Amino acid sequence: MATNFLWAGAGTYLSGPTTILSTQLNTLANSSANTLSTAGSAIQNTNGYLYADVEFVAGSTYTPTAGGFIELWLLRSIDGGSNYEDGSSSIAPARPADIVIPVRGGTTITPRSGAPGLLLPPGFYEPIARNQTGASLPSSGNIIRWSLYTLQY
After folding, report:
1. Do 25 and 142 touch, CB atoms closer than 8 A?
2. Is the N end or the C end of the chain the one with fewer CB atoms within 10 Å?
3. Is the pLDDT of residue 1 over 90?
């Protein structure tokens, strides 16, 4: 007999929302190259969640351009959190972002934007972001947060 796979949690997230980047985003310049946030704190996926829905919330008003976005990488560690793949405030990781969060353009707005279905790796990782919204982020209060979920059968 076939097994139905369902979202665990009966229509609710299993964990979150949890902030993964905050002060690292303050006044983060728009970048077409290698200006990124500093890496956030190490995260270990101890519960084996498979997915995250990710949200960017601006700390106050600013003026993002049409077609803008925030790129988010999870810098991986395969040795238990001792060493992480390349990525810093001046070095973009050598691979595409793990997820891109589209940000609505507008004049003097406070965007709140989300992106679903970030695949979570096993083990340890550190988040790092690049601002591609066309303007520097506000000076305080910006966050990237997520809520976690998985499948059940």
Report:
1. yes
2. N
3. no
